[in-house]
Amino acid sequence: VNRFDFVKLGFNHSMVAEEGRPPYLPADLMKLYLYGYLNRIRSSRKLEKECMRNIELLWLMKGLHPSFRTIAGFRSGHALQIKNFFREFVALLQGWDLVEGKLIAIDGSKFRAVNAKKNNFNEKKIEAQLTYIDQKINQYIQDMDAHDKDEHGDRKIDTVKIKSQIEKQQQRRKKYEALQQELKRSGQEQISTTDADARSMPINHGRIEVSYNAQTAVDAKNCLVVHYENTNTNDKKALSGIAVEVKNALHKESIEALADKGYHNGEELDLCAKNNITTYVAVPDGPRNCDIPTPQYYSDQFTYDPQKDVYICPQNQVLKGSGRWYTKGNGSKYENQVKHYKTRACKSCPVKAVCTRNKNGRLIERSQYAPAVEANSKRIRQEKEKYLLRQQIVEHPFGTIKRQWGFDHVLLKGLKKNEADFGLVFTTYNLAFLFFSIRLAAISKYGINYFFRRYSIA
Questions:
Q1: Where are the alpha helices (DSSP H) in 54-158?
Q2: Distance CA 92, CA 2 (A)
Q3: Tens-digit pLDDT profile for residues 416-439
């Protein structure tokens, strides 16, 4: 920590004023947090307690024991500064030749947010609640009507209680109507009432949790994290932004990027190609067009001729286009331009029944991003061994952080505040690897017995 200039990094209270009571220096609070995260302590209240009883922290903090509010405020109020600290640390690791910056792997992992699933709503969920409330109100009204018709009968009913229940349901209805209006105003697909930035996302095996999606880029040489980003969206539009950030941060002219099929997006692959980033992104298996009955006639079995701008089908028929561009997904976030290719030979083709169910014949769509998509697919086919490195590079940090350390959830609310939390997590991961490297070097140079004596480990 003492290596870094906290004034340059932008931390508040880095300079001690001539007048007034001196603040806690950000360097001391950074040491406290790094020590805490290394020892699985993230809570500001627990760190406050450790400052008064832990002999290592008494030494590290020079006898200081800040309150939990000061500790928590440092983390939540310095998201950008902590990211700057992380970048400086990565630059230091690169200077020590621990980061190569040639091949990186990109992946995202979900961390549960401070927001229960019952406090997350979309349009469908709100409509279901409103329908249920209306049914309950109608049932209460029917009970009241039945009571009015049978005043002199044996049936007894507590009308006061029913009226209070109707009022209660009406209040609930107003609450959900307000949520519905807020959802429409925001233009979002869902809304969370505890943490407004958290989103409901699939975790694994169909399980849904209200979470954040932490994006990371990991260098292949030593599995060190070189970039991170906190998001509340899926991976579909994340690839190029992360890859470009890594290339610029490591001062490289070009890099190679590995990613799973969740990142496969024509626009993103095209942006990477334009920024000298060679991608190895897995190609999704589907969904296939339901108009194509057999795999032998899927679109990837048709050959494109770029000189003539035509497709050749497996039956050696030529599919031509009009040259006109069509907008696909108009108005959606995945909108792109496509060309259509077809041939009249389909009408008399003997294999039409196994090629297409479309009565007008086979139609091929070619996206404006097709060259980048095809180049990526070719690399995946020809260099399978390189893509298979992805899991062992990028899954290691998440496995350590979530399984071994137990950091599978966030503690704060909001994208910005949790960006600081992730910054400390990934800085700590890199720091832990650095400690491991030093110990490994000691074993290699002096032998295992020296290592045990030197570090008192048995």
A1: 55-60, 68-76, 79-95, 123-149
A2: 13
A3: 999 999 999 999 999 998 888 777
